[in-house]
Amino acid sequence: MSEALFTLVGTDVRLQIRLTPKSKKNAINTIINDAQGQMALKVSVTAVPEKGKANAALIKLLSKEWKLAKSDIEISAGELNRHKTLLLKGGGVSLQQRLIEWMKQNNV
């Protein structure tokens, strides 16, 4: 199921995020289907949705968990919305496979 979550765009990997700010903990929770029927990764952060704090917390969490540079994670759509599109720069197929493997190992 996680294979469909990570889409290759040239040498980048695109994925949909459903972000929940002001949560009890920072966590990558599960894969969900959004209202449009698209798969999205549900992520929660403790930061408030003010002045980009929740977005910064999201990037920090993903960077730490997936061992990516923060500069390689870009919010390409939905910066002011809880539904976001992220672009993970570089890595291509090997990054896609690494993320799929991470999802399996962490039971996401």
TrEMBL record:
InterPro entries: DUF167 (IPR003746), YggU-like_sf (IPR036591)
Pfam family, one: DUF167
Coiled coil: none
Gene Ontology CC entries for this record: cytoplasm
UniProt-listed PANTHER family: UPF0235 PROTEIN C15ORF40 (PTHR13420)
Family: Belongs to the UPF0235 family.
Protein name: UPF0235 protein MTBPR1_90020
Organism this protein belongs to: Candidatus Terasakiella magnetica
Lineage of the species this protein comes from: Bacteria, Pseudomonadati, Pseudomonadota, Alphaproteobacteria, Rhodospirillales
